[in-house]
Write a structure and sequence with these properties.
Blueprint lengths: L2 H7 L10 H13 L11 H9 L6 H9 L4 H4 L4 H7 L3 H20 L11 E2 L13 E2 L3 E2 L13 E5 L9 H19 L3 E5 L20 H15 L5 H7 L4 E6 L5 E11 L3 H4 L6 E2 L3 H10 L11 E2 L1 E4 L2 E4 L11 H8 L1 H21 L1 H11 L12 E6 L12 H5 L3 E4 L4 H4 L1 H6 L4 E4 L10 H8 L5 E5 L12 H19 L10 E6 L10 H13 L5 E4 L3 H15 L7 E2 L4 H9 L4 H4 L3 E4 L3 E4 L2 H6 L3 E4 L11 H10 L5 H7 L11 H15 L5 E8 L5 H11 L5 E5 L6 H13 L11 E6 L4 H17 L9 E8 L11 E4 L5 H17 L3 H4 L1 H7 L4 H11 L8 H15 L5 E2 H8 L23 E7 L3 E7 L2 H13 L5 H10 L10 H13 L13 H9 L3 H12 L4 H15 L2 H14 L4 H20 L8 H35 L9 H17 L9 H11 L5 H7 L3 H13 L1 H5 ...
Parallel strand pairs: 1-3, 2-6, 4-5, 12-13, 12-16, 13-15, 14-15, 16-17, 17-18, 22-25, 22-26, 23-24, 24-25, 36-38
Antiparallel strand pairs: 5-7, 6-7, 8-9, 10-11, 19-20, 21-23, 27-29, 28-29, 30-31, 32-33, 32-37, 34-35, 34-37, 35-36, 37-38
Helix pairs in contact: 3-4, 8-9, 14-15, 15-23, 20-21, 21-22, 30-31, 35-38, 36-38, 36-39, 39-42, 41-42, 42-43, 43-44, 43-45, 44-45, 45-46, 45-47, 46-47, 46-50, 47-52, 47-53, 49-50, 52-53, 55-57, 57-58, 58-59, 58-60, 59-60, 60-61
């Protein structure tokens, strides 16, 4: 359009002639025309003229050049030294050299074709590009005319001479023109470019390059951004900002190719269909934001005319406003018609984009990009490359919209050389959309195990963004010349780390050099980085380079050729714009990968799950409401892997819901879980509740669990825990983030349903539950209902198991209904998979109802030609052994490829690793392993297949388990640096050392070692020796050898060697120290057992006692280390390992051995009197000298006495030490229970052994057989008191915890009555003045305990008398050791009773405080990993009956075992039982921080009570009223079932 005509009606333009600036420019231009295009042709006069025009260079310097006859050719050869020698100082010399180099560079970059000549036709600057080295020639003509919409992709153009403007009006004209043009393009859905500085008729030739002088480029960009916000409607501002690209300033050359100082301003418009959709875009006639500011400044003046709405469309070469008043009879008709056709126009735009993208993809470069970035698969969903590494440099904000593919590629690492990337560069943009871990190169230096470093860096979980040229953590960037010296080595470490076989999969990751800025210096860090990757990857097959113009490509190609002597043209993409690269790569994603993902929220609503949020929750695999929607092109292979025996995926459920498919097989327990278990759990008032799905391996337990999640994904926020060994604190944090995501303000939320799989210990499950509870508490999440449900899918080795309310068991036996469903499914499968019955063994095993004969037949047939000397056979054997003895045993794909000699290549068509197993491939399935790093692996398809294969190898092929273990341990190729090496070492370690314990016995060795010892006796030693070589510095393996030699071989010298070696590796471990002590104990036990004859010789006695002393010292050291460990765990607060009691029990066992040994010496073996003497000596009541003096055979026994006196300390302290350890363990077991109520089988074994040892102790120390003493009447009274006390000690009634234990150990009422009679009639009545405070406290406990077992007993004191007796003791001095039991029973008995207020109850607060202080003093160092036992609950009745023991609660319920009761205790179901509610008293109180201030029947007495589950208080306001059941533990009163 003509600028003159436009200016007549443009309010922004003043009518002035050509300004003075243009005239001045003309003069400069005429002077420059004298300079020839080629510098070589410059005369010395022209060199002088050139130098005179250089800024900051004096005229004197130009004269020096002239005097020295410097012509163009010699100018090109000059350096700084030459100029200095001529008398030019350093500063001007550098400026001259720099200006000369820039001139040379400019002339190299500018093509010299005829199209550059003035007046010749020229193409416009490439659309939507910014960094091309492309310039206009002044006076040349653009060969594109001003136009309207054509194919909507080819941009329309509009020219503005921009000549008749002043400094005051040009910015307003610029923004007004851009806005109207942009709105027209957006409404017409066509790409477009408006050019400022391009002439039009009649004043200029149409399309003539004129140019504009721009002093402040940034001002244009800022003003345009502001104008978009002011002219467009508020609802479309964001869209307009996306469609209107920032201004581009294209430099203009003089006719002699020197710079003119002018440019053409161009603005591109891109109305992308995904952005504009079917919207229409109005603009205002004035900038509304400015109008508002004016109105605010003129509050007293009447409001100006309201801005008019406009609606521009492209009409030929101009933009027309369809809302402009016209003379038509129906002025709005054209506007309405246009608006009505918008849907059709938008569809045309979308089709045009797709057509254009197909053209690009099918072009040479587009096709090559698709091939190279996917490894030939042409689909990113099934790309050959599992990982992507990006190397990039300085970016520009205008590029970001064209780099969306980076987020979708989810790169493992980005090596960023832009030091400002975190402020306003690519990292800042990327982090807004995806999870990023920011690193410096130094963090990749190998200082510890490689997988540990990768785990700390979260390398395969988040994108690792590595700042390779500073910019973070105060690390300053380096200049190009200095980068190699200052940062090159650390970046080489990064590259070496990433290219290791045990970090990223060999040949399955692609390195993309994304050149966002041109690389022109030979010392540029990217050149060195390319060289390093080239060396590490041994070629360019895994390298792809992308830049968006040919000049940048040529520069890059030349630099790489100069540095590396290779041509990388075939690995480069350079003819596509970044927008086209972006579109091409995104088109390689399936619809499912591109679609948005949604989470449910309460009330059937849904919220968008942002990609960044999802990736930040990297410990969880999140199942969305619309999971899998959009389909998958690889349905056949997904189904094959599942039916073959691989793990089920969400796709399998999705495919089963599609038309024409039979539904996914519902197991019989599915409806029970859906309709009963889950609804019941939702009503519980705990923040995190647990549901166990126990299953026999290979029976479909994990599949059932995932099926449950799939069915509930629209009501629960479902997720699967990726790695059972993940940091539980991090998992809990992410689970709660998933719960609260866009539900912060909601009173009711969609709960999280988290599936956890492959846990081998329920304690770990409980630990995770506790972490989630604490996280909910920390975030003040109120739990009126369950917020998180843990679905614990755990294997059970038992074929049958009792079910409970929160436990479902799946065995290996299908019901008739299930078998029918499997038969129907097989019919469907065989329609698409012809060889289903011959290859889909996972499915067929279940279809055959786990028939052993079928599995055995498959195993035997497949292994028919097994040869252990073949590589694939060896690898299969290793997989079989791992699968049988280690849950989740697998080998990484990378390891298998290395071992089998398969050579993966970075393109499709390479052999699948399963096929590398040859005839055994049908037994192999692929899987993904989530460990320290995530990698692909293979495993045996089914547990029963693995077991039968192992049996077949042993029986048919004579390959023993010992040989297989030896193969696994001695084959070095298995342990080379490949992915999964650490996981393999962990699995091998597991099958060697992991023991399984039961209540009946403590397992001595792992199942593998025990089976080898049974199958091939003696060969287990060879296996263990090889294990010590494979795990050379592993304390646990050395400990295992020590245990083997002292338990199996009785070779104690060898055992001591391995025990010492274990100690050297782990000096501070109490468990390793215990092994050293156990070696000595077992040696002592062995020599005593081998002692010939009834009597021990004096020489043997010395040896025995010396060994006993060593064993005692070793066990004491174990106890010391155990206390240190416990103190450290209390500080860490995340380690819930309980106190190691083995040192205490070991010392007791040594005491028993000493008693047995002494009983065989002549000194103590003659008669009962001698027996009592031994008791007195070991109790330190009688000295050895006195025994010797009274011994009629002292001469004969003198050698014994000499030896015994050498060990006086050991002997005199024996009873005292044994009693102290027995009491310690009894106290430990009675007052501290499992955190989750589960009985520890190892503790049960320890308690059984303690019971045996106590029997020996009691037999010696708790009875007197000396009849002669009874004849002495003066001794009778004293002896009777001793006998009573010995009797009580023998019954364990001499301690309060022993008495409390009567409530749990099923003591008969008659025996307890007898104990009470001894206390009441003997101690209290006859010897009351001789009773210790401890005995009086025990008497209190005995009354309470007896009342709970036999309330009608005549030996129970009336309740008030007992209270009075208690109050007497409370008034007396009490030893520290008696403080805890006294104040506990005081709190229990003095808790105020309704209608019976007691004066003594007013001291309750003080007693509770003293009890808590005593508890921490006495139990703190041993209570880690334990929970104080609640001994009594507050009932509704009066007197003794108000004290309710746990046994009374159990009697109210129908429970089959302790485990079921424990689970009901944990999830709170126990308190819902009507009989329990009737039995217990509900107490009220108010919340005070993390405690409850409980009300009592005394108005001014309120007592602090601690909640057992602190999450029950979470989210409750300070001072809010609650009610609860009250319990009493040694740590203080506790609250349960808080409402």
């Amino acid at each position: 359009m003509m600028d003159d005509q436009e200016n007549l009606s443009d309010p922004y333009i003043c009518e002035e002639g050509t300004n003075a600036v243009m005239a001045a420019e003309g003069e400069v231009k005429s002077q420059e025309e004298d300079l020839p295009p080629d510098i070589n042709d410059w005369s010395k006069h022209q060199v002088r003229d050139w130098a005179l025009k250089l800024p900051d260079v004096d005229n004197r310097v130009a004269e020096i050049l002239f005097q020295q006859d410097i012509r163009g050719r010699s100018l090109l050869l000059l350096n700084t030294t030459d100029l200095n020698q001529m008398g030019v100082t350093f500063g001007p010399a550098k400026l001259i050299i720099h200006a000369r180099d820039e001139e040379v560079k400019l002339k190299k970059e500018e093509p010299t074709s005829s199209s550059n000549q003035p007046g010749d036709p020229r193409k416009p600057y490439p659309f939507c590009r910014y960094h091309d080295t492309y310039r206009y020639m002044e006076g040349s003509i653009l060969d594109i005319i001003e136009s309207g919409a054509s194919d909507l992709i080819e941009p329309c153009h509009e020219y503005k001479g921009f000549t008749n403007t002043t400094n005051e009006t040009k910015m307003g004209k610029f923004t007004a023109e851009v806005i109207s043009f942009a709105a027209a393009c957006m409404n017409s859905r066509t790409n477009g470019t408006i050019h400022f500085g391009i002439g039009d008729e009649p004043n200029f030739v149409h399309g003539e390059v004129l140019g504009v002088v721009v002093e402040d480029r940034e001002a244009y960009a800022k003003q345009l951004k502001s104008a978009i916000d002011g002219y467009f409607e508020h609802k479309h501002k964001q869209t307009a900002q996306k469609c209107i690209r920032p201004p581009r300033f294209v430099a203009i050359l003089n006719k002699n190719t020197t710079s003119s100082g002018k440019c053409v301003i161009e603005v591109d418009i891109v109305p992308d269909s995904t952005v504009c959709q079917e919207n229409i875009y109005h603009t205002f006639s004035v900038d509304t934001s400015k109008a508002k500011k004016k109105a605010k400044g003129k509050e007293t003046v009447q409001t100006e005319t309201q801005p008019l709405k406009q609606f521009f469309v492209r009409d030929g070469g101009s933009s027309r406003d369809l809302l402009l008043p016209t003379t038509f009879a129906k002025p709005m008709q054209e506007y309405n018609q246009f608006v009505d056709s918008m849907a059709q126009l938008s569809q045309r735009r979308k089709q045009a984009e797709e057509k254009h993208l197909n053209v690009i993809k099918n072009s040479t470069q587009g096709s090559r990009l698709s091939q190279m970035i996917t490894g030939g698969s042409l689909s990113l969903d099934k790309s050959h490359f599992e990982r992507y590494v990006i190397v990039t440099n300085r970016s520009d904000a205008i590029q970001f919209d064209s780099l969306g593919f980076l987020v979708e590629l989810n790169p493992t690492a980005v090596l960023d050389f832009d030091p400002e990337s975190a402020k306003h560069g690519l990292e800042s943009h990327f982090e807004q959309q995806s999870a990023v871990s920011v690193h410096l190169p130094a963090q990749y230096k190998i200082t510890e195990a490689v997988e540990d470093i990768a785990n700390k860096l979260k390398l395969t979980r988040n994108t690792s963004w590595i700042f390779c040229n500073g910019g973070i953590e105060t690390e300053a960037p380096s200049d190009v010349d200095q980068w190699l010296m200052e940062k090159g080595a650390s970046v080489r470490d990064v590259i070496s780390f990433l290219c290791r076989k045990d970090v990223l999969p060999t040949k399955r990751f692609l390195v993309i050099f994304l050149l966002l800025s041109p690389v022109s210096e030979k010392m540029d860090p990217l050149v060195e980085t390319f060289s390093t990757f080239l060396q590490e990857l041994k070629g360019t097959e895994q390298i792809l380079c992308i830049c968006d113009n040919k000049n940048a490509f040529n520069s890059w190609k030349d630099l790489i050729h100069a540095r590396c002597r290779i041509d990388i043209a075939q690995r480069c993409i350079y003819e596509l714009t970044f927008a086209e690269v972006n579109g091409t790569i995104l088109s390689l994603l399936s619809k499912n990968r591109r679609s948005s993902r949604f989470l449910p929220c309460h009330g059937s609503g849904q919220v968008l799950l942002e990609k960044k949020v999802e990736r930040s929750l990297n410990t969880l695999e999140i199942l969305c409401v619309n999971q899998c929607e959009g389909g998958h092109e690889d349905k056949i292979s997904i189904e094959e892997n599942f039916y073959k025996g691989g793990k089920v995926s969400w796709w399998n459920f999705y495919f089963s819901e599609q038309p024409g498919s039979t539904p996914f097989i519902k197991r019989d327990k599915f409806d029970f879980i859906m309709n009963t278990v889950i609804p019941d759990l939702c009503f519980l008032r705990k923040a995190c509740v647990l549901f166990n799905l126990m299953h026999v391996p290979g029976c479909g337990g994990s599949t059932l669990a995932m099926h449950t999640l799939w069915a509930l994904r629209d009501r629960f926020r479902c997720a699967v825990l990726r790695d059972s060994k993940a940091d539980f604190a991090e998992v809990a944090d992410q689970v709660v983030k998933l719960l609260m995501y866009q539900q912060d303000e909601s009173v009711q939320r969609a709960p999280v349903l988290l599936m956890i799989d492959d846990f081998d210990d329920k304690e770990k499950v409980f630990d995770l539950q506790q972490f989630i509870e604490k996280e909910c508490e920390k975030r003040h999440i109120q739990s009126n209902s369950a917020q998180v449900i843990l679905l614990n899918c755990m294997m059970s080795e038992l074929p049958e198991q009792t079910e409970a309310e929160d436990t479902v068991f799946i065995g290996n036996n299908l019901s008739d209904k299930e078998q029918k469903l499997f038969e129907e499914k097989l019919v469907e499968i065989e329609k698409t998979h012809k060889n289903a019955q011959k290859t889909f063994y996972g499915f067929m095993i279940m279809k055959k109802n786990f028939l052993p004969e079928y599995v055995q037949g498959v195993s035997r047939k497949t292994l028919k030609s097994f040869n252990i000397n073949q590589k694939e056979a060896q690898l299969l054997a290793v997989l079989v052994l791992l699968h049988v003895y280690c849950k989740g045993g697998s080998l990484s794909v990378s390891l298998c490829e290395e071992f089998l000699g398969l050579q993966p290549k970075p393109f499709c068509g390479t052999i699948k690793v399963e096929d590398g197993f040859g005839k055994f491939s049908t037994l192999i399935a692929s899987c993904s392993v989530e460990g320290k790093v995530v990698f692909k692996a293979v495993k045996i398809i089914h547990s029963s297949i693995a077991r039968h294969c192992l049996q077949e190898l042993t029986t048919t092929h004579n390959v023993s388990k010992a040989e297989l273990a030896d193969l696994l341990l001695t084959t070095n190729n298995l342990y080379e640096s490949t992915q999964g090496k650490d996981k393999l070492l962990q699995d091998v370690h597991h099958i060697l050392v992991k023991r399984y314990h039961s209540v009946e016995e403590e397992s001595q060795f792992s199942p593998l070692i025990q089976h080898i010892a049974t199958e091939t006796p003696g060969l287990e030693e060879m296996v263990l020796k090889n294990a010590s070589k494979r795990f050379e510095k592993d304390a646990v393996v050395s400990q295992l050898l020590a245990r083997y030699y002292y338990l199996k071989k009785r070779d104690f010298s060898e055992a001591k060697f391995w025990a010492k070696r274990a100690r050297d590796f782990s000096k501070d471990s109490s468990y390793i120290a215990d092994t050293s002590a156990q070696v000595i104990k077992h040696e002592l036990k062995n020599v005593i057992a081998n002692c010939k004859g009834d009597l021990v010789g004096h020489d043997d006695l010395k040896t025995f006692l010396k060994m006993a002393q060593s064993a005692v010292d070793a066990f004491k050291e174990t106890q010391t280390l155990a206390k240190k460990e416990s103190a450290q765990r209390l500080q860490i607060k995340t380690d819930n390992c309980p106190f190691n009691t083995s040192g205490c029990l070991g010392e007791i066992q040594v005491g028993v051995l000493v008693i047995d040994m002494l009983a065989k010496t002549p000194v103590f073996s003659s008669d009962n009197v001698r027996h009592d003497l031994m008791s007195d000596v070991l109790s330190d009541n009688v000295k050895l000298e006195e025994v010797e003096r009274c011994d009629q055979r002292r001469n004969k026994h003198r050698p014994y006495y000499i030896i015994l006196r050498e060990f006086e300390d050991l002997l005199y302290n024996l009873k005292c030490e044994m009693k102290a350890n027995i009491d310690f363990l009894d106290n430990f077991f009675v007052n501290l229970g499992s955190r989750f109520g589960m009985k520890d089988s190892r503790e049960q074994v320890a308690q059984n052994e303690l019971f045996r040892c106590f029997g020996v102790y009691a037999k010696l120390f708790c009875k007197t057989d000396s009849a002669s003493l009874l004849k002495n009447k003066t001794m009778q009274k004293k002896l009777k008191l001793i006998q009573v006390r010995q009797y009580l000690e023998m019954q364990k009634a001499d301690t309060y915890f022993g008495i409390l234990n009567f409530l749990s150990n099923d003591i008969s009422p008659e025996k307890l009555d007898k104990i009470a009679r001894q206390y009441a009639s003997c101690l209290v009545r006859e010897y009351g003045h001789d009773m210790t405070v401890k005995e009086r406290i025990n008497f209190l406990y005995l009354n309470v305990v007896l009342s709970r077992i036999k309330l009608e007993s005549p030996h129970i004191l009336p309740y008030q008398k007992l209270i009075n007796y208690l109050c007497q003791i409370l008034c007396e001095p009490v030893r520290l050791s008696d403080s805890l039991p006294l104040h506990f029973i005081a709190v229990v008995l003095l808790w105020p009773q309704p209608n019976q207020p007691s004066q003594e109850s007013k001291g309750l607060v003080r007693y509770i405080s003293q009890m808590r202080t005593s508890y921490y003093s006495e139990m703190n160092e041993v209570c880690n990993g334990k929970r104080p036992v609640v001994h009594f609950f507050l009932g509704k009745k009066q007197g003794y009956d108000r004290l309710v023991h746990l046994r009374a609660i159990k009697r109210c319920m129908v429970v089959t075992d302790q485990e079921q009761f424990s689970s009901m205790w944990e999830n709170g179901k126990i308190w819902k039982e009507k009989k329990v509610e009737e039995l217990l008293c509900r107490v009220t109180g108010e919340v005070k921080h993390n405690l409850i201030l409980a009300d009592t029947c005394i108005p001014d007495l309120k007592v602090e009570v601690t909640p057992v589950f602190r999450s029950e208080l979470s989210g409750r306001a300070y001072g809010s009223k609650v009610s609860f059941f009250m319990g009493f533990s040694m740590k203080g009163p506790v609250a349960l079932d808080i409402r």
